[in-house]
Design a protein that fits this description.
By secondary structure, this protein is an alpha+beta fold. 43% of the residues lie in helices and 18% in strands. The N and C termini lie far apart (93 Å).
Length: 362
């Protein structure tokens, strides 16, 4: 065996020119004379034996070896690649959350969620499956065991056992160990690849991942709850964050509608007019077409007291609530108290969120 004097790629003794970068081949232990060539920002060299940093590890695994199932992948190569993939998924969830926060209606958020999940699956499934196969090779297991990924619960747990296991130190039936040789600063400068990650770097990346997952989940738990509800045989309810959780025996459309009214005034008091505006529909949405118009109508309100909030008609299509409330606060520096009473007409939108569509005051 010999290796390229430009990029370090190994090749057979009868090979005079590197098939990867076009450099001259030299002795296996000989020096490497020039830096790695790059085209369009991607390393054209496949340094299978080096334990590279996160950037080059991801570029090499995703853009160069994404179709490769032969050979081996070390434990570090596998988990660092999967951590970056997980970060991309978390970023996708945060994008969906931002879309949801920027729009009063959950439909845009759900459409973005479905679209981005589809895109992520399409662009990550092949490299993830292939690196899993190479990781199995590293522990001298057949790549066909990657099919366990489609077996619920038991399959991923069985795979996890091999994914966390250290690879064979010597050559096995699938080849030599790969992605194990450390890259120090001198080698990094000479080859143009990033240095091997330290444990501190790994811990930092894991912490970033956990924070990203938490933020993504916080912004999308309404969507996740709706999907779980479908899996359990129920209807999709994308706006679950707006309603109070109830036990099955307490299920009542009137209760959900009344809870929505309480949340509406709670959001008004806390000046959360975007959320409050999402609870309006029909004539009330026409009356207050923007959150700014709603804010102006309830300017200065700092407290809402209920004399009456009674469900007088209860069905899945319409709920009527008789109300008598006292609004109090300070406007233009002058305290005020205002009494209102009448009937609220509540109807569900396409995501089963009960909205206030009409207020008939006495």
């Amino acid at each position: 065996m010999q290796r390229c004097t430009r990029c370090g790629k190994e090749g057979p003794d009868d090979q005079s020119i590197c098939l990867r970068c076009g450099g001259n081949m030299g002795p296996l232990g000989g020096p490497i004379y020039t830096n790695v060539h790059r085209q369009t920002g991607v390393t054209i060299v496949d340094f299978e034996r080096y334990n590279m940093g996160y950037k080059d590890n991801f570029i090499n695994t995703y853009l160069i070896q994404w179709t490769v199932i032969n050979g081996r992948s070390s434990r570090g190569n596998y988990w660092r690649f999967m951590l970056v993939i997980a970060l991309l998924w978390a970023l996708m969830y945060m994008i969906c959350a931002l879309i949801g926060w920027a729009n009063a209606d959950d439909s845009d958020q759900f459409i973005a969620w479905v679209f981005l999940v589809f895109i992520m699956i399409v662009f990550t499934i092949v490299p993830v499956v292939n690196i899993t196969i190479r990781r199995l090779h590293d522990v001298n297991q057949s790549g066909w065991l990657a099919l366990l990924m489609v077996v619920p619960v038991i399959g991923p747990l069985a795979l996890l056992n091999w994914m966390v296991k250290a690879g064979d130190l010597e050559e096995n039936r699938f080849g030599k160990p790969q992605y194990t040789e450390p890259v120090d600063e001198n080698l990094s400068a000479r080859l143009g690849i990033s240095t091997s990650p330290t444990r501190s770097t790994d811990r930092t990346m894991i912490a970033i991942l956990l924070v990203s997952i938490a933020l993504g989940w916080y912004g999308n738990y309404n969507i996740a709850e709706g999907v779980v509800n479908v899996i359990q045989g129920g209807e999709f309810k994308a706006a679950a964050r707006y309603s109070k959780e109830t036990k099955p025996e307490e299920k009542s459309y009137g209760l959900e509608a009344r809870t929505s009214v309480e949340r509406f005034f709670e959001e008004v008091v806390n000046e959360q007019f975007r959320e409050a505006h999402a609870r309006l529909g029909g004539a009330e949405r026409e009356k207050y077409p923007t959150k700014e118009s709603l804010a102006k109508a309830y300017e200065g309100v700092r407290r809402v007291d209920y004399d009456k909030l009674e469900v007088i008609a209860d069905s899945k299509d319409e709920v009527q609530i008789a109300f008598a409330i006292i609004l109090s606060g300070k406007k233009d520096g002058t305290p005020f108290t205002e009494r209102r009473s009448g009937t609220m007409i509540m109807r569900p939108n396409k995501y089963t969120l009960f909205q206030i569509v009409e207020i008939r005051e006495k």
